[in-house]
Amino acid sequence: MDSKSLYAKAQTLMPGGVNSPLRACRYVNAEPVFIENAKGAYIYDVDGRQYVDYVFSWGPQILGHQDAAVSEAAHKAIDLGSSYGAPCYGEIALAEEINKMIPSMDMMRMVSSGTEATMSALRLARGYTGRKKFVKFIGNYHGHADAFLAAAGSAAATVPGTPGVPEEVTQHTLLAQYNDLEAVKTHFEESGDDIACIIVEPAAGNMGLVLPAEGFLQGLRDLCDKYGAVLIFDEVITGFRLAPGGAQERFGITPDLTTLGKIIGGGFPVGCYGGKREIMEHMAPVGGVFQAGTLSGNPVAMAAGLATLKRLQESDYAALEARTKELAEGLTAIMKEKGKSVFLNQIASAFTMYFSETPVTNMIESGKCDADAYATYWQQMLAQGVYLAPAGFECAFTCFAHTDEDFEKTLEAARKVQF
Fold first, then answer.
1. Rounded Cα gap, residues 264 and 246, in angstroms
2. What is the rounded distance in angstroms from the CA atom of residue 136 to the CA atom of residue 362?
3. Which of 272, 300, 301, 348 would staple 260 via disulfide (CB 3.0–4.6 Å)?
4. Could you give the count of Cα atoms lying within 13 Å of 209 in the half-sphere of its Cβ?
5. From CA 394, how far away is CA 153, in angstroms rounded?
6. Distance between CA 393 and CA 140 in Å, rounded?
7. Residue 354 has what DSSP assignment?
8. Does residue 76 have an active-site annotation?
9. Contact between 111 and 293 (Cβ < 8 Å)
């Protein structure tokens, strides 16, 4: 069956025909293509078309699809059993590797998704401090747990309101614009004794890529220290992308807790939260804060993740960043030559080219971008074999498998886009 017929069938079985809202491609006025397989820097749809991929399962496939070492590790693990629901050596080996690369994570707990990681970290911060409130930033997406779906980014930004989340659940969620340190200071001046934590994407990736302003992250660290709150870095996107040690290595700011996502499983369903030993030891069975999961520490995900992190320690991050910067600036220059107002945010192997007349530093500015222009760009790039995120407020990702020829094909496709 082709993508069109598969999508028609899917809509009879799944809401909107998808298992995650953004995949429906409504933001770009299109229908989704159904993927059959992926290899290296490419994905292939059921219609036999090849695409240069810039989504990579929304970030985690930094080595490219089906990296040989990762695939071999996963195959060996699955031959020993797909799930135990019991401890296995792989959990220890992966935790040791994470601790080596992100030293702030003294102890950690494996889970099955980024959402589980962030909701568990929030519960832990509340249990550790005995406080109820927490600060989050408008446009930061921390998964779909109820408490986080107040002014969330990513696909949640396309949904008018969030039915099913009672006001009582989000009444302790204090909101501030990303990069607005003064707003956070005000929250602490008014409620500092009842704020358990700040949770933040150290470089936002769900309203497009938005970089932290000078002093912003340090200001959050200082406020948490002053008021006894926990600083949580949501590194589900930035972890092992911005640097081998994530955003906290890149920016030189140490959080109390860190959440990680599928990159630590080589793309398999996995997440993790961890941090200071004195905080983590409040988790059951040592402490009283409860969290559990049958698939936590899944042996296949642990093996794939361990192989991924070992490969990343041998990878040339600086070279990939330089190549990514050249690609992103090339795309931006091409759009400007076509008379479009665009603004680029780029760091490491991630970038967002906003169709915007002004710089983008928060959700308000991201929301003013020209959605119609992005839809036109996306549709024509897809038709020429370039697979981008089906929304203008997401990141584009490069990987270590991309070649110079892949980037040149992408630039050539952009040159042919007509508005």
1. 12
2. 13
3. 272
4. 23
5. 9
6. 11
7. E
8. no
9. yes
Residue in 94, 102, 110 with CA at minimum distance from that of residue 248: 102
pLDDT of residue 160: 40
The whole-angstrom separation of Cα 257 and Cα 234 is 9
CA Rg value for the chain: 21
Q: Single out the residue of 287, 266, 248 nearest to residue 120, CA to CA.
A: 287
SS3 call for 107: strand
Q: Which bin fits 214, alpha (ψ -120 to 50), beta or left (φ > 0)?
A: beta
Sign of CA dihedral 412, 413, 416, 418: negative
Euclidean distance between CA atoms 109 and 105, whole angstroms: 10
Question: Catalytic one among 45, 67, 234, 256?
Answer: 234
398 to each of 88, 124, 187, 320, how far by Cα in Å? 33, 34, 37, 8
84 sits in which H/E element = none
What is the number of H-type helices and E-type strands within the chain? 14, 14
262 labelled catalytic: yes
The amino acid that residue 99 corresponds to is N
**The pLDDT value given to residue 169:** 81
**Tokens for 331?**
């795309």
Annotated catalytic residue within 51, 136, 178, 262 = 262
Measured distance between the N- and C-terminal CA atoms of the chain, rounded to whole angstroms: 32
Q: Over the stretch 254-275, which tens digit does the pLDDT of each residue have?
A: 999 999 999 999 999 999 999 9
Cα–Cα distance measured from residue 229 to residue 83, given in angstroms and rounded to the nearest whole number: 37
Identify the DSSP state of 26: G
Tell me which of 42, 54, 141, 387 is the catalytic residue.
141
Nearest to 391 by CA among 34, 26, 19, 52: 26
Token digits of residue 310: 């070992």
In the chain the domains, ranked by start, together with CATH numbers, are: 3-63+316-415 (3.90.1150.10), 68-312 (3.40.640.10)
For the question of residue 2 being annotated catalytic, the response is no
Rounded Cα gap, residues 246 and 201, in angstroms: 11
The residues near 57 (Cβ < 8 Å, ≥ 6 apart) are 262, 267
Report pLDDT for 147. 87
pLDDT for position 162: 67
Burial level of 405, CB count in 10 A (0-12/13-18/19+)? Answer: exposed
The dihedral over CA atoms of 240, 245, 249, 254, expressed in degrees to the nearest 10, equals 110
- DSSP sequence for 383-399: HTTEE--SSTTS-EE--
